[in-house]
TrEMBL record:
Highest taxon of source: Eukaryota
The keyword Cytoplasm is annotated on this UniProt entry: yes
Functional description taken from the UniProt entry: Plays a role in the organization of both preexisting and nascent microtubules in interphase cells. During mitosis, required for the organization and orientation of the mitotic spindle.
BP terms from Gene Ontology: cilium assembly; regulation of microtubule cytoskeleton organization
Compartments (UniProt record): Cytoplasm, Cytoskeleton, Microtubule organizing center, Centrosome
Subunit (UniProt): Directly interacts with tubulin-gamma; this interaction determines centrosomal localization.
PROSITE patterns membership: TPR
Name of the featured protein: Centrosomal protein of 70 kDa
MF annotations from Gene Ontology: gamma-tubulin binding
Length: 245
């Protein structure tokens, strides 16, 4: 009776689950009440077995949470308390709260670091491309993107014109263009030498000076003849003079 009374007081506690007490129905309940014995606890053995299983599972859950805590909080060297006979829900809640607090702290730090990194990137861009204000960053980015596209197209066209591999670096392109310019300049010099009939640069200079001395008076003479003969083409000068004979 004392045991039943103790159980009855526990079941009537506000903290007790509402479905734990299931009163029997019918004449059996009246008979037991008349004899002063409790009733309605026939299902308690199964419930107690379930509680025992849950307590064991609670201990396993505590062990798993401790492992997770050591992974996320390696500096936390407190006693895992895996050998305790009883594990309370409060113990599990403390571990979970510590893990959540650390995750929130890491998230805040990550956001702060991201903002610092972005600020550093923007500042570096401003220094590289001489941007004085944040409002000028986007226009300069667009300008750089446009220039980069133009240079890329130009380099691709040069690769094709010079018959270079697409992987050839810009230095190779510049060297090839330089060699091509040297060849062109050499050919032009040779053509000028052939035209003027000399291989000496000083002779070329002398001939150009002679041309500068001779050509202006000759041009003036031709203009006077055109006016005097009343013609407009140089080719008509000789026929007009012959007609005067």
């Amino acid at each position: 009776l004392k045991v039943l009374s103790r159980i009855d007081s526990i079941l009537q506690s506000p903290r007790a689950p509402p479905s734990i007490f299931r009163p029997s129905k019918g004449p059996v309940q009246n008979y037991i009440k008349e004899n002063g014995q409790g009733c309605g606890f026939e299902h308690l053995p199964l419930t107690i077995e379930m509680w025992a299983d849950q307590l064991i599972a609670l201990k396993d859950l505590h062990r798993s949470l401790r492992k997770l805590s050591l992974e996320l909080l390696p500096w936390n060297t407190k006693d895992p308390q895996d050998n305790r006979e009883s594990i309370r829900v409060e113990d599990l809640q403390l571990i979970v709260d510590a893990i959540l607090e650390e995750l929130e702290h890491k998230e805040k730090n990550s956001q702060t670091q991201s903002l610092q990194t972005l600020s550093a990137i923007v500042s570096h861009f401003q220094k590289l491309f001489d941007v004085n204000s944040l409002s000028g960053v986007y226009p300069r980015m667009n300008e750089v993107y446009t220039k980069l596209g133009e240079m890329t197209n130009a380099m691709r066209n040069l690769h094709e014109l010079l018959q270079l591999d697409s992987s050839a670096p810009p230095t190779v392109v510049v060297d090839t263009v330089g060699k091509l310019c040297d060849i062109i300049n050499k050919n032009v010099t040779e053509q000028v030498q052939q035209l003027l009939g000399t291989q000496d640069i000083h002779s070329i200079i002398n001939k150009l000076e002679e041309h500068e001395c001779f050509f202006p008076p000759f041009q003036a003479l031709i203009q006077d003849l055109l006016c005097l003969l009343e013609i407009s083409n140089v080719d008509d000068i000789l026929p007009a003079v012959q007609n005067l004979k």
